[in-house]
Design a protein that fits this description.
The structure holds three protein chains of three kinds.
Chain A lengths: L2 H21 L46 E4 L5 E7 L6 H17 L3 E2 L2 E9 L4 H12 L4 E6 L3 H13 L4 E3 L17 E3 L4 H15 L4 E6 L3 H16 L3 E7 L8 H8 L5 E3 L6 H9 L9 E4 L6 H7 L7 E5 L5 H15 L8 H18 L1 E2 L5 E4 H9 L4 E3 L2 E3 L12 E6 L12 E5 L1
Chain B lengths: L2 H24 L1 H5 L3 E3 L3 E2 H18 L5 H28 L11 H7 L7 H23 L4 H17 L1 H4 L5 H7 L7 H19 L1 H11 L4 H22 L2 H26 L8 H15 L11 H20 L7 H20 L4 H4 L12 E2 L2 E2 L3 H23 L2 H11 L1 H6 L4 H27 L9 H14 L4 H17 L7 H15 L8 H17 L1 H4 L5
Antiparallel strand pairs in B: 1-2, 3-4
Chain C lengths: L5 H4 L6 H28 L4 H32 L6 H21 L2 H4 L1 H28 L8 H22 L4 E2 L9 E2 L2 E2 H23 L1 H11 L1 H6 L4 H27 L1 E2 L5 H14 L4 H23 L11 H15 L16
Antiparallel strand pairs in C: 1-4, 2-3
Helix pairs in contact in C: 2-13, 3-8, 3-9, 3-11, 3-12, 3-13, 4-6, 4-7, 4-11, 4-12, 6-11, 8-9, 8-11, 9-11, 12-13, 12-14, 13-14
The chains are: A alpha/beta, B mainly alpha, C mainly alpha.
Amino acid sequence: MQRPARLFTMLLLSLVFVLAACQRAQPTPTPAPAAQPSPTQPAAPAVSPTPAAQPTPQAQVTKPTDPIGVLEIKPGEPIVLAWMLTVSGGTAQLGEDSKRGIEIAIDDLGGQLLGHKIELVGEDSGCNPEGGQAAATRLAANPRIVAIVGSSCSSEARVGAPIIDQAGLVMVSPSNTAPDLTDPAKHVNAYLRVAHNDKVQGRVAAEFVVNKLGLKKVATIHDGSLYAEQLANVFAENVKKLGGTVVAQEAVSPDDTDMRPVLTRIATQQPELIYYPIFNPAGSFITIQAKEISGLENVKLMSADGLLEPQTVQNAGQAAVGLYLSGPDLTVLGPKYQEFVQKYQQKYGTKPVAGFHAHAYDATMMIVEAIKKVAVQAPDGTLYIPRKALRDALYETKNFQGLTGNLTCDPNGDCADPKIAVYEVFSTDTANWPDSAIRKIYP
Amino acid sequence: MSLATLRRALFIGLLGGIAVWHLSLVGLLPAFAQRRLIGETLTFSYALLVALFALAAHATGRRYPGALQRVAWGTLSALTAGLLVLALAFVVTQVNLRQIFLNATPDLARVLTFGAGVSPAGILRTLLIAAVAGIVSGVVGAAPAPWGRVSVSAALATLLLGLLRDVLGPILPSGLVSVLYGPAGLSVPGAVVIFVLFFLLFALRWSLSGRAGAERLVAFVPSPARGPLARLVVIFLLASVPLWAGLFLSNVADFVGFYILMGLGLNLVLGFAGLLDLGYVAFFAVGAYTMAVLTSPEIGQRFTLDFWVALPIAIVLTVCAGLLVGLPVLRMRGDYLAIATLGFGEIVRLLVLSDWLKPYLGGAQGVTRIARPQIGPFRIDSPQEFYVLVLVSCLLAWFLSIRLRDSRLGRAWFAIREDEFVAQAMGINRVTAKLSAFAIGASFGGLSGALFASLVGSVVPASFSLLVSINVVALLVLGGMGSLPGVVVGALALVGIPELLREFQEYRLLVYGIVLIAMMLFRPAGLLPERIHRRELEEAVEEVREVAPAEIAPGPS
Amino acid sequence: MAIATPRSFLSGRRLEASQLIVWTIGAVLLGIVFVGSVLTLRAGHYTAAQWRDFIVFGIAQGSIYALIALGYTMVYGVLRMINFAHGEVFMSGAMTTFFLADYLNRSGFLKAHPWISLIAMLLFSGLVSMTIAVLVERIAYRPLRGAPRLVPLITAVGASFFLQYTFRGLFGSGVRAYPAIPVLQGKLWVFQKTQIAVFVGVAITLLLLLLFLQRTRAGLAIRAVAEDREAAALMGVDVDRAIVMTFAVGGFMAGIAGVLYALVFIQVQFFMGFLPGIKAFTAAVLGGIGNLPGAAVGGLVLGVIESVGPSLFFDGYGIRAAHQLKDVIAFTILVLILIFRPTGILGERLGGEERV
């Protein structure tokens, strides 16, 4: 490009930018500094003048103030909810299932909330820390989002929740179960969950193995993810408490295809059961290959809610028969849940494919309740949602009647009413999942 | 009017049709239909279809000097493509292929027929649009230069602005936005205005009268002041970004900055010294993980350091890593060097991923709670604030690159790039030169990694995969190897644009692959190549083309 | 370029320091491996049966690598370029044939005629991969024949992404599982039947390849072009056809490797080609790039080392989850070979020479 022309173009561009910079009406809501060692925030007064229990927002003349910030939704603009789930790859069924739970919840609300349309956006988080990081970063950069339902996998949340927290948003997870996420020392304010804490699941699984099956020697395999590692540890601790022994604790990678070295090493310790609470496809590789290792011909296999999907049985075929799976107990959930399943079937053509669709529904409804509690409607129709108040309202959720039970949130973000069951795979027929392939055997 | 020309036109139309088949079945075309570019009807998919028809027409027509022939043959190609599009729509609605091809849905058929479905109306509509696209393409192509180029560029710019609505919306003044943009894309009047604006702009730039006018304007500025003024303006523009860019754009700008830094580093190794390093991510990882390990309270409970203390340590360690990588590969050449460095990159990633090193490096879950820089009482928290740091680093790296390029070391690198043995014979110490290339190049990567770790607040092993190395090499090649502005252009194109268009995340790497192949086929020297490089590359490729033209051109074979 | 081989040129005094460091590092690594093996064997955790299983599996996996490596080595011999997209060629055969396998299974044909089904699957996969390989050559590589080596490399990378994500878009990102082949279930004596099938499959393919290259005119043309492209052209060999044939044969074998892989691993996914691709390339380099028996040997050696290595080398040190370092071993071997013996195990003059 000729020199003069280049200079001229740049001068033109700078003129445009100067105009733009001068004209900027309002800066986009700036995110709050980190929840970590951060300078103290001015103790701004709480937001809505109404008592918290009122569902309808009071008309107010002035915009509310909030330590984190206030989201302003003009008349005609939608209320933006976001999902952060794993919808691709081997774990796609888990995330897709949850996403459908959210969509049904929005349908049940008529797609409207407080006179605004509900818009659903989302990011694929891939069930790994990098995906969680990327998805959280993108969601955090979208100032229109009110709240997030996610993430699917605990490893995503460990990395993603601080980013969400930093941005002032709030997230409610339908399927994270790792204990660390609600550990008081590590918990971030933006994070809540409606799924069970694995301290429960590990205990139930151990009780099943030692008390019901009567096995004493177990081995565990995790895949390096937060969820798998912690669940395997909880399981191991509980087995030891109940008098069993843990002969080996190994790890694989989620994209490993050859599990033979690990299985062979375990075989040298002669376990009676292998507990591998991981995801597909790694889980199915273990299921398939375990039977081929000399020394493991009679070993029992057990996994957890990460494998509670039709793919597990489809991919491993006959090798999956006899596999035990722990997970949310969907058989005791009552008539509202049955209605939900019907709606699911009508809308998507199949019965629910993973374990956490009802949890996602509950998470969405919980968020909606909290929004109704704290939103402030101005006379001109603008809706103000104060962010910190929204978080507080979520933490104050008490006896919320959800599909999965009675939800009450504790200060660390655990809201679930945990009901865990152990299922057994008895057939390779997944045409009518879950009933055609698995059945509950404990408790 | 011979059989050969007919066959050629049909063949190009066939290729265009196959391209549409591919993009449809892969799911890109149906996904793009969600996006409206102008008004309520012109979606991204429709624009893409029209563009493909026009491209087919152009590829056929450009051989013919006469306007009539051009339009005629071009339209024939476009119509052929149109027929294929209809064929796919028909197949998809008649046969249920969804068990195999997930995207072969009736929705796809609707998109392919521009909304009318597989019906007489749809067939007519599609063929008509194809014909019109062909005719317009021919006419525009036959127009005297530069008007053809101007109109096409203006049209593309308009469509681009429609696409970037979500990005530009928050930063432009709201009054402007409500005039130009509708609910989803550009409004029709807005589109017209923008098209005219860009038409004038490009006309000014590319037409002779425009250039003359610009020259006269710039004559006001005295000649010696022009260079520094230009530089000042650029720096002013860059520095102003945090003022007007929102959260999202600043984030994108930060990531582009990281890749620019890495690109400048790899430029020393690959662009200047000609060492094909496919494992550059290793340096990025060393920088990031050093920052993580030293400043995060999760690892090494005994102490955590401040960001500013950890940063130089990270750079020093990365330099050591550069030397460690450089030493073994001193005697390797070309492909082998590439593979060996690729191996190193993967080894680093696997080590930080392993359970064995988990107590020190965080394992598969990575390291979180990495420190942010603090200047006195002021902590750099938001992407906008971080941008300043990134900008300063990039400017520093740029400055260093220029100084190195013009130094004796730089000359030594160029000599090595041209011919290692002759350089040695000329008295250049190959060992020192290569090692310093690796070391200094690595330091830029380490700086970039450390900043990245701090901005995101956490590091996870998957962020340091081969893809990053390939990205850096690709952006270097795209921009032109050895060319510093090329690094910036490459980063904007290969990192900035995909981030801006994040809703199409799924197809990003598909497009990436297509772009890489297309770039290598049509512009192997890059977009802003260094003059010498471009001559070399184009000569080499030309030679082959001259020797065997028949096999390159499609047609009778 | 008529210049002395690098080795002699560089044994001058200038490089001694750096060479010394590199040799030391190499010796240390070897020492670690040796000591580790001794410790592991002395600790005696694994039975002989288990070592045998490791080795057998290693041979099975290694033979799959060998088939893919042959494709790499042939292309490198003929074009002096690394065909990064070859791993995706392997994947394309495996993924496409899944649908055939699924159809055969659901229609009952698989149970009724398992051997015919298997052969059909192998041929189908070979054909698909072959087509893809030839298309890639035609579109992406041929126009760039004379360009400096970076350009075809980038193109190959682009082609690799393109193929991966095309298949992801076409068939989805999920994992597909091949149906179990009735005749190949269970063990024959002490070996898994699927693994035996893999050996046999690879052996037959290698034999056919050898016959093709040695006894047919097309094979002769390929060998001539690999030897010296210009001389071959002068001798009347159609160079373009020979090159296309090379890609076709390499692709066909990759397709067969794809189905064999699916027999053993069952699950296939769109990015299954990436890692085997790199491993196969490592195998080719290990055996001597451009050298066909070398590729086969390299594949087998790599497969066995990968299978046996982590347990043998690292178990003795008590390293947790040593098998995660399996790929580290593979890449380290790659780097070491490139440093100390670029011509590979079986040696090949292509390795050390300066290529113009």
